[in-house]
Amino acid sequence: MNTSVPIVQIKEAPNRRFPKLLRIIMLYIIAILFLFPFYIAIVYSIKTPVETAQSPLAFPTHIAWSNYSDAIAASNFFLALRNSVLTTIGTVLLTITVCSMAAYMIARNNNRFYNFFYYLFMSSIMLPFQVLMFPLYKTWTELHLLNTIPGLIIALTGVQIGYFAFLYVGFIKTVPRELEESATLDGASRYRTFFSIIFPLLKPINSTILVLSALGAWNDFVVSMIIVQKKEASTLPLVQFQFFGEYTSEINMAFAAIILSMIPIMVFYLFAQKYIIGGVTAGAVKG
Amino acid sequence: MTRKYKDELLKFSFIVPALLFFCLVVVFPFFRGVNIAFTNWNGIDMSYDYVGLHNLKLLFTDTELLNPIKNTLFFAIFTTVFINVIGLGLAVALNTKFPGVNLLKSFIFMPMVISLVLAAIIWRYIYSDIFPTIFHTDGGLLGNPTTVMLGISIISVWKEVGLAMVIYYAGLQTIPKDMYESAHIDGAGSWTQFSKITVPLLMPAFTYCIPLWIGTGLRQFDYPMVATKGGPGTSSETLAMYVYNYEFPYFKAGYGQMAALMLFFFILIVTVFVTNYFRRREVEY
């Protein structure tokens, strides 16, 4: 009765094997091509200018570690690192707290009043930053938030609220109400219910938002460029941008600075890979 | 009664922090920007005049706008097509088990996690130093006004293909395997299976991806800003850079803000249209 299945498999096996192998080899080649720019960055960062001029592609004979110490000295690396870390931590904490709280009430109250706020937040997803750029800059000047880390944190949080609240609402709708109802019956306040019962249940979406907002804050260029124009509050992307304007003749040192600033995010990627990829696909595909 | 009232207030207090930040960063600047768009404000002086639709009239008669429009459309179309086609191709190709498949996925996604500034800087040197060594070309794509947008678009494709790949890959996981099995038994080849099963059932991923890249393409600012600062000359200036230039270096805030608003409406119309187009093609199974 089910003989047709094995026959098909026997017929298919030999002539499918070769294309599959070819396909795998091609995929390996493509992956290597994707890594090629990283190889260039690493090789440049450990070469002397003489060797770079002779053969930009080759691996160096002598590794010039001095590029790294020079880069640290010339670029205020640790100041920028500190600013990036502070900005990222601040943005992530603020984003998770305010978005989860707001999304909780929006998801649990399906009435006109809360729907209005839902659509208000959502409407900002489509809004290009260029529309806010100049008025935000003016507002931040007046509030003395320009060139400050808190100013940058608030701006980054604000532009991300729409998308992250949207992701939270979608997730919270799938969380059953029973647990919080029993908590309310036991006399827990709304805040107590939220922080000790609901919030821990949001762990999957919290980790998604954590990685997405961390990546967004760490790598942001446009918002930071408008809010920060002084060295004291410059984050890594801003420092890199300026650094390459100033040190175009010392590319090896500049590439050492690139590698240095890549290390934290690469370590983060290695550890949080599952969440990063899970995060970027959340909301993209209906399960 | 007062207790009910108090509870409603308590409920509302959950929204207040988000609303506060949102208003400060988005709502208030947005309306302030709309106001500026109808003035001749230079962005610095205390006083300015309302000029009605004058900025709009200027915008529609500015022939210098043609170049940024052309560049922006080129970037948006090129990156949308290549990121999605390559991303989908990689997702389908990687949707089998073989040694190292997860590692390959991580590698292809890797450019997505580094900052765009780093990506643009690395590629600047690949174009100027490495390409001439390998292909014996001169100068590089970014130094030539006719190829600069192509060069910038390639950087974007390299950086963002991994994102399209993982989204399509996640979409592929939602398609039941037995659909392919029964199609296979019915004698459908791999192309028929791809066009008759994979593509229609991946529509939700298309609905997400294609408007996303059209949208980001149309508001592109970062890549040209970092890679070429809009140059050589103004040959890689995009609409978003045009807005930036008028608001900051040229001190024409009113005009720049009107340009920003028009860019917003343009992106809104295009994305809504494209999203609806793909949403209508989503199928239930």
From TrEMBL, chain A:
Record organism: Paenibacillus kyungheensis
Keyword Cell inner membrane: no
Record GO cellular component, one term: plasma membrane
SUPFAM superfamilies: MetI-like
Family, as annotated: Belongs to the binding-protein-dependent transport system permease family.
Major place of residence: membrane
Domain ABC transmembrane type-1: 81-272
Spans traversing the lipid bilayer: 21-46, 85-104, 116-137, 149-172, 193-215, 251-272
Coiled coil: none
Any one Pfam family match given in the protein's UniProt record, by short name: BPD_transp_1
Annotated keywords: Cell membrane, Membrane, Transmembrane, Transmembrane helix, Transport
Membrane topology designation: Multi-pass membrane protein
InterPro entries: BP-dep_ABC_trans_perm, MetI-like, MetI-like_sf
Name of the protein: Carbohydrate ABC transporter permease
PROSITE patterns: ABC_TM1 (PS50928)
One GO-annotated biological process of the protein: transmembrane transport
Location within or outside the cell: Cell membrane
Top-level taxon of the source organism: Bacteria
Automatic annotation (TrEMBL), chain B:
Membrane topology: Multi-pass membrane protein
Name of one Pfam family that matches: BPD_transp_1
Family annotation (PROSITE patterns): ABC_TM1
Keyword Membrane: yes
Keywords, ordered alphabetically: Cell membrane, Membrane, Transmembrane, Transmembrane helix, Transport
A single BP term in Gene Ontology: transmembrane transport
Annotated transmembrane regions: 12-31, 73-94, 106-127, 147-170, 197-215, 258-278
Main localization of the protein described in the UniProt heading: membrane
Record-level GO cellular component terms: plasma membrane
Domain spans labelled ABC transmembrane type-1: 69-276
Keyword Cell membrane: yes
Cellular location(s): Cell membrane
Highest taxon, organism lineage: Bacteria
Family: Belongs to the binding-protein-dependent transport system permease family.
Protein name: Sugar ABC transporter permease
UniProt organism field: Paenibacillus kyungheensis
Taxonomic placement: Bacteria, Bacillati, Bacillota, Bacilli, Bacillales
